[in-house]
Design a protein that fits this description.
heterodimer; A: two-stranded antiparallel sheet; B: mainly alpha; two-stranded antiparallel ribbon; 11 helices
């Protein structure tokens, strides 16, 4: 019951938030939150650290951007296609990556993402260093004009809630229980007869597709798909968001994304703009050394200690 | 111009040389990673940043203190090694018993900090470092022109790689190292100071990156981003070779440099991605890597 109240409160907050906060900022937070939630599905619930999730974010973005600009599709079709494209890429990359474990998994995903980066750098349709600029937002279902930031915001919110719900359903399904079993004790999961690699693979595809969904939506919001989204820096950023918020928690990535986007927005405006990378690095180090459970993890621990049974 | 079967030998051998040089750097970096991995079971994401640090230290030493290339070749790896030792002792050791993913994230954070600091101080455009006088000029071979400095990179890197291999495989110190890789607890029980060996190993692995940085300073421009670009390629190489053997790390590094060089000649569009493609193939055919021992 308690958790339901929390969801309701967050939902109401999200509904009225544009009245108080800049909608583009909120949309950015929601896109990155979805990205981080998708990433966390893999890290927090299967124990796989992917260092290449930018490839899926970028693929979603580029495919949606390309279709919106050249095929004149409606935004929902563009987003669905971007998501599917990222899912297909995830199926290939995931099949390869789940062959290795632990740090090798991280290195394989990073290298594969770099492959995608070079592909998008050289491919003729991406606009190279400039990226795709001026992607139209279009009319949702053909009649809702999304060029208005407020209607765009509610659309992004709906996409986010859908993605969040998907992840929630995945985690709490029998499939999700097997994923957790793999995380906790892989040899035992194998001995119980589960084909561990297939489970990891499916989780990877879901995670990649949802990261693509985040990327597609982000492209519509900013009307831009660029190399920044496929750069390894972006893969690192999503790791940071999840780590900071609390990996393996439901709300951690949401909070982490909010915090990181806020920090970036705050810094890029002021004279500290050049220090973003250093500050991100410092947060990484501090999180790892002193704060491994992340914000939500620490709150949970605190609540359990003081109000638990 | 010398041609054979329609292949321009001049251009081909030029690209092969570039490939061998890149391969030397790949070998030095993946060797460092493999040594560190052997004992600490972690991947040092900061290896690329420490390579960059090596190049910048060499540049700064020349610029501000007038320390020449030859002195830098000795002093800079030592300095980078000290940075590594401090990193291991004060940052990595406290979390040594946690999940190794945390050490990876920690080194990633450190890499971001180092890269950010140097971008802040020197911008991202890059500095040039003059080739030392003794190695200026080149030799004209029948089929190509061989710049002396480039020949020196290959010879010196191979010498360092080979002596490292020899030290680990053939000396008593190396035996400690290999024993520590197998079973650190048992080695501690025999009265060997394992934490000290771990620290020194990390320092040495990192010093190799520093050495590569000094070597690289005169051929590539000294820029904050030089480390991260090469590191991702080196990771792919580590996956290709597997980290089971020291010799394997060296060989794979060199071979991948050559493969890259050949691709640059025959199909330039794929030269940035060919190593990743090889990685994909290796993952499909032999997931443990060419020299990998683990299942």
């Amino acid at each position: 019951m308690k958790i339901n109240k929390l969801y309701l409160a967050l939902f109401i907050f999200a509904l009225i938030a544009p009245a108080a906060l800049y909608p583009v900022f909120l949309m950015k937070v929601l896109c990155f939150a979805l990205f981080a939630c998708a990433f966390n599905l893999l890290l927090g619930f299967v124990g796989l650290l992917s260092f290449g999730h930018a490839a899926f974010l970028g693929t979603g973005g580029y495919v949606t951007g390309y279709l919106m600009m050249n095929a004149g599709v409606t935004p929902e079709i563009g987003i669905i296609c971007g998501t599917i494209a990222a899912g297909i890429l995830g199926a290939f990359y995931g099949k390869l990556a789940v062959k290795r474990e632990g740090i090798y998994f991280a290195m394989v995903t990073l290298a594969l993402a770099q492959l995608a980066f070079f592909f998008y750098l050289q491919a003729p349709f991406t606009g190279g260093e400039d990226g795709m600029q001026g992607v139209p937002r279009g009319h949702l279902f053909g009649f809702i004009d999304l060029s208005d930031n407020i209607s765009m915001y509610y659309f992004v919110l709906a996409v986010f809630i859908f993605g969040f719900w998907m992840i929630h359903r995945t985690i709490h399904s029998p499939f999700g229980q097997v994923l957790k079993a793999i995380r906790e004790n892989e040899p035992r999961a194998i001995s119980l007869g589960y084909n561990v690699n297939d489970y990891k693979w499916v989780a990877f595809i879901i995670s990649a597709a949802l990261a693509g969904l985040a990327g597609s939506t982000k492209t519509l919001v900013f009307q831009l798909a660029s190399l920044t989204d496929v750069h390894w820096h972006m893969s690192g950023e999503v790791v940071l968001m999840t780590l900071l918020g609390g990996m393996g928690t439901i709300f951690g990535p949401l909070l982490g994304a909010g915090a990181v986007v806020t920090i970036q927005n705050y810094l890029s405006g002021g004279e500290l703009g050049n220090y973003v990378s250093i500050i991100m690095g410092v947060i990484f180090v501090v999180c790892v050394l002193a704060f491994r459970n992340g914000i939500v993890g620490e709150i949970n621990k605190f609540v359990k200690k003081n109000f638990g049974h | 111009m010398a041609t054979f079967l329609g292949i321009n030998l001049f251009g081909l051998s030029g690209q092969l040389l570039v490939g061998l040089i890149n391969g030397s750097f790949y070998a030095l970096l993946s060797l460092g990673l493999a040594i560190i991995f052997g004992l600490l079971r972690i991947i040092n994401f900061a290896q690329g940043a420490l390579y960059m640090l090596g190049a910048f230290f060499a540049w700064m030493a020349l610029q501000y203190m007038g320390i020449n290339y030859w002195a830098a070749l000795i002093l800079v790896p030592l300095a980078v090694g000290v940075v590594g030792i401090l990193m291991e002792r004060y940052l990595l050791r406290p979390i040594a018993n946690e999940d190794h993913l945390y050490s990876l994230l920690l080194t990633f954070g450190l890499a971001l900090i180092m890269q950010g600091v140097f971008t802040q101080m020197y911008g991202s455009s890059g500095m040039s470092y003059a080739i030392p006088d003794a190695l200026k000029g080149g030799t004209r071979l029948p089929f190509m022109y061989l710049p002396n400095y480039r020949a020196w990179i290959i010879v010196a890197s191979l010498a360092v790689c080979f002596s490292t291999w020899w030290m680990i495989e053939k000396t008593k110190l190396g035996a400690y190292l290999r024993a520590g890789t197998e079973n650190p607890a048992m080695m501690q029980a025999f009265g060997i100071n394992v934490p000290l060996i771990v620290t020194l190993t990390f320092g040495f692995g990192v010093a190799l990156a520093g050495f590569a940085g000094v070597m690289a300073a005169p051929v590539y421009s000294v820029s904050p981003e030089m480390g991260s670009n090469i590191l991702i390629v080196v990771f792919a190489i580590v996956v290709i070779g597997g980290m089971g053997s020291i010799g394997g790390a060296i060989l794979t590094g060199l071979a991948m440099g050559v493969v890259e060089g050949l691709t640059k000649y025959f199909y330039p569009e794929a030269s940035t991605t060919v190593i990743f493609m090889v990685m994909v193939i290796v993952l499909l055919v032999k997931p443990a890597g060419l020299f990998g021992k683990e299942a």
